[in-house]
Amino acid sequence: MQLRFLERVQLRDLERTRRWIADEERRAAERQRGLQARPPVPDWLIEQSLSRHVAPVYVHVGGCHMAGKRSKGVTREQALRALADRVDPCPHCRPDTVLGILD
């Protein structure tokens, strides 16, 4: 009798483990779908200042870890124009160097 009780307990534990595994596999699949659905990182970013009436703060290479939340993706030409208009290049990712601009 005690062996039957032990068997029921182990079957219940096995079912719980299988549910955990299924839940984790579902979460991993959802994470993967989320990563695949992300838009691509832009090649260039312009970080805006806090005020709309002040010039942008920095030009960044896309994916720069220092780009702030107020950054927006721009084209290569827009990044070049911003640098020509004296918007500072980010000192970390150095977009001026990547774009081939020399002082």
Task: Please give a handful of descriptors for the protein shown.
alpha+beta; single chain; rod-shaped; DUF6233 domain-containing protein; 2 domains; 103 residues; 14% strand; DUF6233
Task: Describe the model.
- This is DUF6233 domain-containing protein.
- It comes from Streptomyces machairae.
- It holds the Pfam family DUF6233.
- This protein has 103 residues and is of the alpha+beta class.
- It has two domains: 1-38; 44-98, no CATH class.
- It is built from three helices and four strands, in the order αβββαβα.
- It has a four-stranded mixed β-sheet with strand order 3-1-2-4.
- It is rod-shaped and about 85 Å long.
Judged by helices, strands and strand pairing, the structural class is alpha+beta
Report helical residue fraction.
40-55%
Q: What does the oligomeric state look like here?
A: single chain
Number of DSSP E strands:
4
Give the helices and strands as they follow along the chain.
HEEEHEH
Shape: rod-shaped
Number of helical segments with 4 or more residues: 3
Distance between the termini: 87 Å
Largest sheet, strands/sense/barrel: 4 strands, mixed
What is the topology, as strand order, of the major beta sheet? 3-1-2-4
Q: Per DSSP, what share of the residues sits in E-state strands of 2 or more residues?
A: 5-15%
